[in-house]
Design a protein that fits this description.
nine-stranded mixed sheet, EAL_dom, Alpha-Beta Plaits, 36% helix, Cyclic-di-GMP_PDE-like, elongated, alpha/beta, 14 helices, TIM Barrel, FAD binding
Length: 413
């Protein structure tokens, strides 16, 4: 069994394209030693490479490729396994698209096919190659700056925790984390997430409950979330609360309870975003649909949380017509290096744009993740890159600023 790995990247500015011949010559020797097949395409700005060989050898080679300063914005497009080589002998071959017609390149690659009936256009690796040669996806090549082009600075000191006196806090509390528009330096909303009294996870709290009491406790806890939000002083910001999807079905007049507690805390329903988790199990769909209608009629807004983590996302999207979706952290993690994740998130952005649904990227931890998502069209973010969740209080936000070194470099160009 062999690994086929396909990636693309962007040539660095200091690299002369006439040095590619020497680079490929050395790669040819190395690939033969490692029993790896390599096909490299270059269009004057981007590289596209297919590597094929023993998995351990390909992974080791790719790891060193990622560290090579001659290119950047390296994105894996495909990782697949085959019984035998798709593209002939070991070594490395370069196809410079500036000097060869696309039909010549495609035919040359086809001629290297090793399958009994030669490669067909249904082969994914060949399809990727054809797409690059024909430049059909270049609008999706989102280039980002190096991570050290930005620094993240807090613009205010951390405020002390507000002291609360609520009986419920013996059993649980809430942590608050902002959702921000980084380039506008604006806090859009705060998310209140249930925690144990000393900061333990929500799962830890809910694990002590069973049956209908889980849903009753889920709903009742929001009374404390609203009270804490008012004490913290969210002003005219919105506050997002998470609900299990079936809470609105299993607890009678759940929406009425929420509205009463919102107004009792001096807030208005329009400030509240109710986020239901995509990976929650929904039964009694007719009652769930009725509850969604009641929720929206009350003035509260609806979001789908953890979008992309479960199996019900697209169906839930059509049923609920939410105001916002919050893309799951697992989809965001290292998105700047993953072609499959980029394709999925770009599709999410497109259909949300068509439906006028706001997109929030959650769990953002790396500058590169934020930069790629911003380039893709996402404006609102949540994650430790900007602010960590804070128990019983609002955390300080760190805002991005272009570093002096990068500004100086740009001026010198």
């Amino acid at each position: 069994m062999l690994l086929t790995l396909v990636y693309r990247s962007h040539i660095s500015e200091h690299v002369q394209s006439d040095s590619l011949v020497e680079m490929v010559s050395q790669a040819n020797v190395n690939n033969e030693l490692l029993s790896i097949t390599g096909i490299l395409l270059f269009d004057g700005m981007h590289f596209f490479q297919l590597l094929e060989g023993p998995e351990e050898a390909v992974d080791a080679l790719y790891s060193s490729i990622c560290q090579d300063k001659r290119h950047h914005n390296v994105v894996v497009l495909m990782r697949d396994y085959v019984q035998s080589r798709r593209f002939g002998n070991v070594g490395m071959e370069l196809f410079d698209l500036r000097h060869h017609h696309e039909d010549e390149v495609l035919q040359a690659v086809l001629d290297k096919g090793t399958s009994k009936y030669q490669l067909t256009y249904e082969d994914r690796a060949l399809q990727f190659l054809c797409t690059f040669v024909q430049a059909r996806e270049k609008e999706n090549y989102l280039e980002i700056l190096p991570a050290d082009s930005w620094s993240f600075l807090a613009d205010e000191p951390l405020k002390p925790e507000v002291e609360f006196i609520f009986p419920e806090m013996q059993d649980y509390s809430f942590a608050f984390q902002p959702i921000v528009d980084p380039l506008s330096r604006e806090i859009i909303s705060y998310e209140a997430t249930i925690r144990g009294p000393e900061g333990g996870s929500a799962m830890e709290y809910y694990s002590r409950l069973s049956g209908i009491t889980i849903y009753e406790a889920d709903l009742k806890s929001k009374k404390l979330a609203f009270a804490m939000a008012q004490k913290i002083g969210i002003s005219d910001k919105t506050i997002s609360i998470k609900l299990l999807p079936m809470t609105l079905v299993m607890v009678p007049d759940a929406v009425g309870f929420l509205v009463n507690e919102i107004t009792a805390c001096g807030l208005v329903p329009e400030q509240i975003v109710v986020a239901i988790t995509e990976n929650g199990v929904i039964t009694r769909e007719d009652k769930f649909t009725t509850a969604m209608k009641q929720l929206k009629a009350s003035g509260m807004r609806l979001a789908i949380d953890d979008f992309g983590a479960g199996s019900a996302g697209l169906l839930l999207l059509t049923q609920c017509q939410p105001d916002k979706i919050m893309i799951d952290r697992n989809m965001i993690c290292d998105i700047h290096t993953s072609g499959p994740k980029q394709a999925v998130v770009q599709a999410i952005i497109r259909f949300c744009s068509a439906l006028e649904i706001s997109v929030i990227a959650t769990g953002v931890e790396k500058p590169e993740e934020w930069m790629w998502l911003d380039a893709a069209g996402v404006c609102n973010f949540q994650g430790e890159l900007f602010a960590e969740p804070r128990l019983k209080g609002a955390p300080v936000v760190t805002w991005p600023e272009v570093t002096y070194e990068y500004q100086s470099g740009q001026q010198a160009l």
